[in-house]
Amino acid sequence: MKHAVSDLSNFIGTHVLSFQNPRVVCPPGTLTEQGRPNIIVATPRRSGTHVLIDLLLNNMPAYRTRPLYVDLDQCLKRTTPAHDLLTPITSRAGYIIKTHLPIGLDESVTTNGHVQRLIKDGIVLTVRRDRDAVIRSEMRWQDDQAETHADYEAAYDAFWRFWQDQDQIALDFKALFDPVRMQTLMDDLATRTRTATKVRFKPAPSPTGKTGIYANKALTRLLGRHAPLINTTIHTLKG
């Protein structure tokens, strides 16, 4: 029964109420420069990416924009000579930028001048989750099993080789669920960006509150930045 509810929720989220709408993410959303630094959430897949994005959106009102965040990897994949999605992502765009770079991308993007400037000028947050836990989660998440255990290992290692020398705020996966540590992070980011945090800290949701998770996901996709509590997660309850 638990898996049936999760599968139904994910089906609705994929085919009826997609997260890929202009209120939630660019692309397809369009950007308006906000005049502050970007916060770059750089993670391997299955490492708490959207948990951290949601902590930022729920605790830093200035970054609760339309769209809520930028998917840099999709911008890179969709940029063509006739359709350049990178140009509006300036160093002062003032958005949360999600990336798994270089996972799933052509190796040439790691030397792209625009991307390098974004990383240099942005505030980079990385999250390190145990390698075996990430790979187990990948194996559960990828239903078609097109990629192998070795593929996931190679992608994880490639990610950290690329980011290890970048200036970053390095977080441990477990820290995302520690309200004290996360509130301290939000206060630090507010100082760095000259913005403010919410008066009352909003922690990561408990995975046991499934009804609330589904409701917040739906409201986020319908209302974008006006949703009471942002939840940008894509698939639910897959580890």
Helix content: 40-55%
Query: Approximately how much beta-strand content do the residues carry?
Result: 5-15%
Tell me the number of strands. Answer: 6
Calculate the mean pLDDT score and round it: 90
SSE order, one letter for each helix or strand: HEEHEHEHEHHEHH
Morphology = globular
Strand order of the largest sheet: 1-3-4-2-5-6
Tally of helical runs: 8
Gyration radius (Cα, Å) is 17 Å
Largest sheet: 6 strands, parallel
Poorly predicted ranges (pLDDT <50, ≥5 residues)?
A: 1-13
Distance between the termini: 17 Å
Q: What structural class should be given to the helix and strand makeup?
A: alpha/beta
Characterise the protein shown here.
The chain has 239 residues and is of the alpha/beta class. It is built from eight helices and six strands, in the order H-E-E-H-E-H-E-H-E-H-H-E-H-H. It has helices at residues 2-15, 49-59, 72-78, 113-121, 131-141, 149-163, 179-193, 210-223, and strands spanning 25-26, 39-42, 69-71, 96-99, 123-128, 169-172. It has a six-stranded parallel β-sheet, with helices on both faces. The two termini are 17 Å apart. Mean pLDDT is 90; it is low at 1-13.
